[in-house]
What does this fold into?
Amino acid sequence: MNGGFLVDPLLASGIFGLVVAVSALLVFLCTRLGGVFAATVGPSGDKLAGLEGLRGILALAVVAHHACCWYYFTQTAVWGTGGSIIFERFARFGVMQFFFISGFLFWRKLMRRGRIELGSFYLSRFVRLAPLYYLCVGAAILIGLSLMHFHILVGAGELGGSLLSWLLFSMGGQPTVDGADIQRIISGVVWTLAMEWCFYLALPFLGWFSRKTLRLMHLAFLCGVVFVICKYLSSGRIQNHVLNQGFLEIREFAKFMLIGFGGGILIAAFHDKIKQ
It folds into this structure.
């Protein structure tokens, strides 16, 4: 065991303390301030307890995968599971099932209510996801800038554009910030949040497809066409980086609409019929 592991318990304790502090702040805001804030971030009455428990198990599986990768990274400087098939499957299975559950829950809500209260919905998603995300990404950006000795090496427009992408949950990609490779610092693990937010932003448009089960065929066909077109356009045929990144993001979202969110959507569409 190398000497670097001697500081790992202190680092882990510090990170755990920050997570606890942020969680305590959210609890304080919900219980003491009340009102719209508490109603927005509080759990809704139609949640399925079994699925919530499954989400916890899936989250632990992803944490175990990242812990394994971190261990091998400290040993070999390569982010990976050291050839462990089990730990490799933990992440892929956990992430895909998260998408599956998200598709099921939100499609079920669309079918039952016909629409989503967008203001409270987006506020709820933001409050649940933003604090810890901004804490981690903000720390990564500070670390990256410190490695560059806080010297501004790029123009204001490029710097602002890169920061904006990170502020938007990396929906615009995971660019360097003033030359610092933030994606490497966080190992690129926030890409799932970008897919989640793309799904949330698409829900008002997807509501039309939820009104009739047969419209799922139209949705699947549309996602397939979008995937093929964006795969073609993002395969090096366009030299503009911004456009290429945009087509790449849309391609990935269309893919996960078919094999991730789409699986949950399909079950939600036929859930009541299956029970009968």
